[in-house]
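discrete fold record:
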Amino acid sequence: MATRNLNGVEIRVVEDPARTTAELLIVAAGHVALSGGSASGPAFELAARLRPDWSGAHIWFGDDRAVPPDDELSNYRLAKETLLDRLTVLPEVHRVRGELGAEKAADLYDEELARVTLDLALNGIGPDGHTASIYPNAPALDESERRAVAAEAKWEPFVPRVTMTPPMFAAAGLLVYLVRGEDKAEVVRRAFVDDPSPASPASLLRGRKTIAILDGAAASLLPQG
């Protein structure tokens, strides 16, 4: 594993990002926010094998689509199938009530998140630089009071969403970015090397500590050394 610091972010370039992420998840205590995306499932499966007892933990979702929990687009469904259904002892799960519609679900989630501080938030980065469901130049970037808001999707699938807000992520003890693949190399560079910009939300969102877990392809445009 190659580790270095870029602009206050600990960059870890590893052969197996899923394992490195799972190892962080299984030692996280308290409140943990999960994400969707193709990179998350393998990490969740491994985390379930490494730690089948999640008693005492609270599972949240950094974002989710406004769909029922059994919908194939649901981040909750991904976490249920790859993590929760494989555990011997479940955590307390706080899902987004997407079946109620984005606005109502966001209001309920915002209330439920009152007085909650995340110990760990796991995020990905989209092809346009979005993270969670905070898209380039989106109104959510200016949110300073709410913990969750409704969001209009700017990337496929075009389904209304609910997302945690920048203040919620900023208060997290650890914000972890999990990114794989050569197709993400450009947005990774923008997120961790270029000047922070609303055009690249992942360049703005940081926790009290931030770690980026990358494979070699995703890290290919980062400065060497």
In short: Residues 2-214 form a domain with the Rossmann fold fold (CATH 3.40.50.1360).
